[in-house]
Amino acid sequence: MIVVDGARELLHGGTPFDRTTYRYTPLLAVLVIPAVLVANPLGKVVFTLSDLGAAYYCFHMLLRFSTERSAKWMVVILILFNPVVLNVSTRGNSDMLISFMSMGVLAKFAEGRYFTAAAILGFAVHFKIYPIIYALPLVLGVWERAKQECFFGRLAHTAPVVVGCGLCFTVAFAVPTYVCYLVYGQQYLDEAFIYHIHREDHRHNFSPYWLLMYLNMGRRDLGVGVDYSAGLFAFLPQFAVLCYASWKLRKNIAHACCVETILFVAFNKVCTVQYFVWFLPFLAFVFCEPAQPKRLMGATNVSKSERPSMLSAVAVILMWSLTIPLWVWTAYRLEFEGQNHYGRLWIVSCVFYLATVGLAAWLGRLCYRSRITIAIKDHRPAFKRA
Q1: Are 35 and 45 found together in one domain?
Q2: 3 state DSSP class of 381
Q3: CB–CB of 96/89 below 8 Å?
């Protein structure tokens, strides 16, 4: 496990970055020091506990607008006994730790504790960059909460909260980042942040960009002047679709975060299996069974919120899931058997990309039509119908 090796280097008087391919915050290495001092499995236990934390926050969020039975099933299927989550956490990967923090952000936001949510988000971004995508849905969520009808009235209500959240986010991100920089210098920034911006992985990468990365690697080796790399331009379509999804789904932050995360994974230059655990917990907010209107707002004669049928949900998830073994089988023949399947693997990567975007589009349409919107007030859950 890379993180445990980094902790071992740390205890031996070196830095976590002395371990090749350690490209995380040094705090992760500190977190798994018991795995070096006591027993190696303790590192995996730390990350597995993140599953329980994410399940805890997800369950309590679901109780606000779904039936208890549905909340339990969603948490069991998508987090606690999900094979992808179990595999990622028990092999010593820290991605569920970030999902745990993301669920914490949603939970605190639902309680109306915006500053706490912003602080958790800032700390999560210190661990991994990608949770920054949740900042826009949270800001739009605060905007939607404002009762004023006119633009300037809403702006006057929202601006102080957003500025305060921005300060909390900045402090929670900057303090640990600056401390790590003081200890490890520029190497920390290069490995933990800058590397991920220019990252080029042509192996084990579901994204269609892998072929451009492979060609670019060959260009550098041969000294050819043509640059095939997408570079920073790859972030432009990603940024555009994230902004669009945030705006269209601004009335329900959980839905916005779910669709945003799937789109982020689909449009990212690098996509591996552990990225799937970023959005799996969020799916619970889409597929849960809404509570009865009386429970939500004490009203009658309210139409039911649109939910997907079991058949359609299974069909969509199955069609997306089938692209994964198809990709793995094709990649195995290329990477392990050495067969010339570069073109075939790129086509399968495009199929996976289209399937993931299709999944996000289907979920986005479903969420947009949902009539349940979360309106937080006075730290108590209240709900309204659009």
Answers
A1: no
A2: strand
A3: yes
Does pTM top 0.85 for this prediction?
yes
- The residue length of the chain stands at 386
CA distance 264 to 251: 20
Report the C-alpha gap between 50 and 79 in whole angstroms: 10
Decide: 355 and 323 in contact? Cβ < 8 Å.
yes
Rounded mean pLDDT for each run of 10 residues along the chain, 386 residues in total: 89 91 93 89 89 95 88 94 92 92 95 95 96 95 82 86 96 97 95 86 89 78 59 86 94 94 95 94 90 50 56 88 95 90 95 97 90 47 38
User: Is there a single domain that holds both residue 27 and residue 108?
Assistant: no
Pair of tokens at residue 345: 């693997």
**Of 30, 29, 6, 27, the residue nearest 18 (C-alpha):** 6
Reported as type and span, the H/E element at residue 289 is none
Residue 288 token pair: 């849960």
User: In whole angstroms, what is the distance from residue 216 CA to residue 229 CA?
Assistant: 6
What is the token pair recorded at 340? 């010339």
Could you tell me if 113 and 379 are in contact, meaning their C-beta atoms sit under 8 angstroms apart? yes
Instruction: Say if residue 268 is in the same domain as residue 258.
Output: yes
- Segments forming the whole domain that contains residue 32: 1-39
Q: Are residues 34 and 45 in the same domain?
A: no
